[in-house]
Structures are given as structure tokens and as C-alpha cells.
């Protein structure tokens, strides 16, 4: 059973037939499934066309319910899965452990398996999923199921980018956009021993949260005094959000000479930057996409060791359309997680009959 769309972000319940359980496959009983902004873009066909009834969701945490004879995990193991569920394993990218850049990769939903399986890939907005165990990851005991789900996108993306571009004691890190990605980026940067962490925000609420998360300085891009005070202070800047009104000259004024700007936000909005700023100051504009299998394992281990955890808003699976509305409004702090066992949540929630926008907005 899953919640599907054939176009648009209003989902309906369906029954579907998954791929046959292969020798290396596991079937996962999904306990928690995260909602990401990219899910909305795909469901609304902003980025690609949907093929039939599409069950989205690429941040999964649950237990192994069945396992093939050659699977890496056994029934009962706590596991999770991310966006990439298969790759060729023979190309240069795969050999380098960067399976997310493989031209033959398979995505967890709205995609076709490359092994000839006639069934499409179905994602995590479902009660169960079947995946190759080589792209499934065991959860450390220290990580709670509900906290695990967002790690497989927001956590992975920010951890990989920070590590790849050298966050640490010798760097000052900036985080633009304090949402699902940004609030985890601050925690990872702090755990990596970063000298200073600048949270670049646009509201008092995110400023207060950023300080709680570990930011040492908050910058309001609309405040000229802030821009002047922190001129050329940031060595490594992660950009988690931008739009048509983003003033890139102001953003780049915060970056030190020879600094690096890492674009993590997925947007159709073009980035317009005068090349003179880049050339005269030796600034680098780069990007990073998710992470490979080793990155995921390293991220989970690091997360458990340093007690990084997402701020989550739990919503019962049968309220998935309410959850998608919250995601559209960007009003949750900061990661929305669908919870399969909604009955326990309802029994303990005296406000269960409130509208979702009130009931779930501020839990953390």
C-alpha cells in the first residue's frame, strides 16, 4: 500500500505490486518516511514528468521484514534508505564511491530498474519497500527511527558537502537558509570543530533557532550593518536556498578571498553573478549532490557519535496530504516525518482534532 500521484501534490491511496524479492534484496517495513521539498517539485512535475501512479519519498527508516539469501541484513534489523537505490558499479564514478553521479543509477521512485524488472521503482510513501541491500544502510543504535529518516537527504547532503570542502578548525563556515538542510549543516559544522559558524537568515525565528543549534553569529542579509560587520569573513558558504530576489553581490561580500560557495539548493532560478567578483577575488562556485554509499555510512556513524539530530515534526501517514501542505508553506521546523503507527500518536495527543497547520507546525 502506498500514497501516489499521477500529477499534482494531492495523493491518493493505492495498492501496487513491487519488484520480486531478489537474492540480495530486502523488504523494509517502513516506520518513518521523510518529506523533502524536492518531492513536491517532482510530484507537481516542475522537474520531470511522472510515469503513471508515482509513490514518492526518498528518506526511509524501518525494519527488515524479509531478506533474500544473499542480503546484507537479516529480518528485524533497523535500516534506512536514500534516493539512489542502484548503480552500474563499473563506471569511474561508482569505482570512486560516487554512485550518485553514475549515469546508470536508479532513483527510488519514478524510475525504471536497469536489470529489466518490469515494475517501476516505488518510494517511501508506502507501508513497505523492496530494495537491493547494497543500497540499504544499518542504523546505529544511537539514532532513533524518526530522527533517521531526514538524515538520508538533508543530513547526507550537508555532511558530504562540509566534509568534501574542508569544514573544520581552520575554516569559518556560513550557512544560508536555515531549513531542513541548514539546521543540520550548523550542527555538523559545529561537530567538525569549525572555528566560527555564521547563520545567514531572514527572520528572527531562524536566528534564535540557529543560535540554539550552534551558530556563533547570525547575519540578516537585509541589514547593511550586518553585511559591513562580516565583510569577507566566511571561508566556506553553503547555499541551501535562493530565489529571484537574492542579491548575490551581498551574499558574496560575506565570503573571504579564495573562499568557496557550495550550491546545494535545487532551483530553476538562474544564478546571476558578475564574473569580475569571482575573478578578482579568486572565489569558487561549486556544487554537491547527495553522497555515495560510503558517505552515507560515514554520515550515520558521525551523526551517532556527535549526537546530531534533526528537529522534526511527526505527522501520521494517513495525514500525508496535510503534511504536504505544511511542506508547501515551509512552516514546519524543520523536517516533516511521516509516522506509520499513528494510533499511538493520536492516543497521546489531546490536540489530535486540530487542523494540521496548527497541530504540527511547532513541534521539535
TrEMBL record:
CDD domains in alphabetical order: CAD1
GO molecular function annotation: metal ion binding; oxidoreductase activity, acting on the CH-OH group of donors, NAD or NADP as acceptor
Record-linked InterPro entries: ADH-like_C, ADH-like_N, CAD-like, ER, GroES-like_sf, NAD(P)-bd_dom_sf
Enoyl reductase (ER) domain boundaries: 8-338
Coiled coil: none
Cofactor(s) essential for the protein: Zn(2+)
Pfam families for this protein: ADH_N, ADH_zinc_N
Name used for this protein in its record: GroES-like protein
Organism: Linnemannia elongata AG-77
Taxon lineage: Eukaryota, Fungi, Fungi incertae sedis, Mucoromycota, Mortierellomycotina
Amino acid at each position: 500500500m502506498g500514497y501516489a500521484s499521477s500529477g499534482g501534490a494531492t495523493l491518493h491511496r493505492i495498492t501496487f505490486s513491487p519488484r520480486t524479492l531478489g537474492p540480495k534484496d530486502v523488504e523494509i517495513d517502513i516506520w518513518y518516511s521523510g518529506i523533502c521539498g524536492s518531492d513536491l517539485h517532482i510530484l507537481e512535475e516542475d522537474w520531470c514528468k511522472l510515469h503513471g501512479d508515482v509513490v514518492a519519498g526518498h528518506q526511509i527508516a524501518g525494519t527488515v521484514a524479509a531478506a533474500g539469501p544473499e542480503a546484507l541484513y537479516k529480518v528485524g534489523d533497523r535500516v534506512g534508505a536514500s534516493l539512489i537505490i542502484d548503480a552500474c558499479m563499473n563506471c569511474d564514478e561508482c569505482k570512486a564511491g560516487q554512485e550518485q553521479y553514475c549515469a546508470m543509477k536508479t532513483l527510488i521512485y519514478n524510475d525504471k530498474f536497469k536489470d529489466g524488472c518490469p515494475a517501476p521503482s516505488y518510494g517511501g510513501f508506502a507501508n513497505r519497500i523492496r530494495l537491493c541491500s547494497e543500497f540499504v544502510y544499518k542504523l546505529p543504535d544511537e539514532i532513533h527511527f524518526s530522527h533517521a529518516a531526514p538524515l538520508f537527504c538533508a543530513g547526507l547532503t550537508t555532511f558530504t558537502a562540509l566534509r568534501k570542502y574542508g569544514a573544520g578548525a581552520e575554516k569559518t563556515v556560513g550557512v544560508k537558509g536555515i531549513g531542513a538542510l541548514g539546521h543540520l549543516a550548523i550542527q555538523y559544522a559545529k561537530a567538525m570543530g569549525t572555528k566560527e559558524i555564521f547563520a545567514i537568515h531572514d527572520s528572527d525565528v531562524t536566528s534564535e533557532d540557529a543560535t540554539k543549534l550552534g551558530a556563533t553569529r547570525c547575519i540578516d542579509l537585509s541589514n547593511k550593518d550586518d553585511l559591513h560587520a562580516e565583510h569577507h569573513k566566511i571561508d566556506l558558504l553553503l547555499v541551501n536556498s535562493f530565489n529571484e530576489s537574492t542579491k548575490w553581490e551581498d551574499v558574496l561580500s560575506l565570503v573571504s578571498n579564495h573562499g568557496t560557495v557550495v550550491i546545494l539548493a535545487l532551483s530553476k532560478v538562474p544564478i546571476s553573478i558578475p564574473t569580475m567578483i569571482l575573478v578578482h577575488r579568486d572565489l569558487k562556485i561549486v556544487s554537491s549532490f547527495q553522497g555515495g554509499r560510503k558517505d552515507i555510512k560515514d554520515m550515520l556513524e558521525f551523526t551517532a557519535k556527535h549526537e546530531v539530530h534533526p528537529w522534526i515534526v511527526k505527522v501520521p501517514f494517513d495525514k500525508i496530504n496535510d503534511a504536504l501542505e505544511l511542506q508547501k508553506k515551509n512552516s514546519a521546523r524543520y523536517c516533516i516525518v511521516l509516522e506509520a503507527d499513528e494510533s499511538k500518536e493520536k492516543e497521546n495527543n489531546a490536540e489530535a482534532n486540530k487542523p494540521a497547520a496548527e497541530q504540527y507546525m511547532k513541534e521539535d
